[in-house]
Fold this sequence. Notes:
The protein is α/β, with parallel strands linked by helices. The chain has one domain (11-286). 52% of the residues lie in helices and 8% in strands.
Amino acid sequence: MRLDDYDNDIQVSDQRGQSFGGGGGLGGLLGFLPLLMGRKLGCGTIVLIAIVGFFIFSSGGLQLGGGGGGSAGSAQRGGTSLESSCNIDAVSKEACNTLSSLDNTWEQVLPGFRQPTLVFYSQRGQSGCGAAQSAMGPFYCPTDQGIYLDTDFFRQLDQQMGAGGDFARRYVIAHEMGHHIQKLTGVADEVRQRQARASQEEGNALQVRMELQADCYAGVWAGQNRDRLEPGDIEEGMTAAHAIGDDTLMKEAGRRPVESMFTHGTSEQRMRWLQRGLQSGDPQQCDTFAARSL
């Protein structure tokens, strides 16, 4: 996808190189799960839920690190700090260009749009929702309206899940922007209130609709920028959506898929709603909560 001509008029915070306290290892990660299950579920979090044991203990991926004290980096716009954060490596530059495109697109589509902050971290960071650890994958924190990204996740997406390519990476960021749109429109708060009164199974079902809507919103962004798509982009996105479906991840972890435990949707559902957004380019077509069938 051709986005290398975008201006980086974005909000960026960089926590890479900083040190953060708190519990390390799997224990610290499991302590964070209640927050994740409530609302702050990122595109990569389903990787944690379904296959944390598989990747940590079998393949050595998704490692958790330790650290000392520290605090979150502040938001930066323009100037040397932004330039250095976005140009640390090619993937960082790509992420910044993607966010710039997302901002520009949603400013045109959604009245009252406010920019989120892209927060880079490495292994361990700190968000307004609590600790950030690389095993979570990319996630959105509604408290500080930040999209948290450890770019090492993209290597895992490629090498461990077989979903490489620039559009696969951009889809992941666009999905997290979808959660930001849900925060801005009030959908996120409404669903969180409903989840607080629901059973675990009902709460999971609501979360699936949240995640599929975010997939559809990612497709809307791509559909709005169809003239920038390159051959193979859509296939890369569909491959990534398939790779992070609940049923696929559970099977790869040696577990029997159980629908009541799904929190992000099946591979087929994720691909379908991404495709729906792509084809329509219309966020009005992304009302997963009104859909009788997902």
